[in-house]
Design brief:
alpha/beta, Nucleotidyltransferase, domain 5, 6 helices, seven-stranded mixed beta sheet, globular, disordered C terminus, 19% strand
């Protein structure tokens, strides 16, 4: 079973096709079976939550987080991605998908949302706040960038979450880490180290329910 886990991690990091892992790893059929099974029965999410709690404890943080940081990122979709699941980001003029994430103050992921790139950040922020409120009821504070508008602030207030929009410094040029928000940018950078996450790929039928079409 450890070799099954090694193969899943290898596939996520390298982005290789399921049929082409190194020959010293278990066969594709077994690896894909357990990957899908553990994802669908909640095992993968449970492991993720336990690892996040351990990481927080190592940093002398309480396991119940009280603050989150929200952001979205547009990534290009692969050539075989379904057209009804992709769109054009009007701000960045980039086609593909958007992924919105909510992280804690350490940059550890709490919630994820994958949508067409044409969806506005407001809709992403509202959906993420709903997810955070349902899975992390102890959260009372959130930081977002200027792409999230007043609708997100008002929705957060209804959920008991104080949403603060972090404005970019007036004299800032190029990439400048912003207070509180830099952790979510770091999280996106870490995700891109895994080639499977560097581009929006074909979405299997059992996953399409989790990917929202553009509005």
């Amino acid at each position: 079973m450890r070799e099954i886990v090694n193969a899943i991690l290898y596939q996520a990091r390298t982005g290789c096709q399921w049929h082409y892992p190194p020959h010293d790893l278990p066969p594709k059929s077994a690896v894909y079976y357990y990957s899908a099974f553990w994802r669908d029965d909640g095992t993968a999410e449970t492991i993720h939550d336990l690892l996040r709690w351990q990481a927080r404890e190592m940093c002398k943080r309480h396991e119940d987080r009280t603050a989150v940081v929200l952001d979205s990122q547009t990534v290009r979709a692969s050539a075989n991605a379904p057209k009804d699941m992709t769109g054009l980001d009007p701000g960045k003029k980039s086609p593909g998908r958007k992924r919105g994430i909510a992280t804690d103050a350490l940059g550890l992921i709490i919630a994820v949302l994958v949508v067409a790139a044409s969806m506005h950040d407001n809709a992403i922020g509202i959906a993420l706040l709903d997810n955070v409120a349902a899975t992390a009821p102890t959260v009372t504070k959130s930081w977002v960038d200027a792409g999230f508008k007043q609708a997100v602030v008002e929705h957060g207030a209804r959920l008991g979450i104080d949403v603060e929009i972090v404005q970019r410094g007036s004299g800032a040029r190029g990439f400048t880490p912003e207070p509180k928000r830099w952790v979510v940018e770091q999280a996106f950078g870490t995700l891109l180290l895994h080639r499977r996450l560097a581009r929006g790929r074909r979405t299997a039928t059992w996953r399409r329910r989790r990917v929202l079409p553009g509005r």
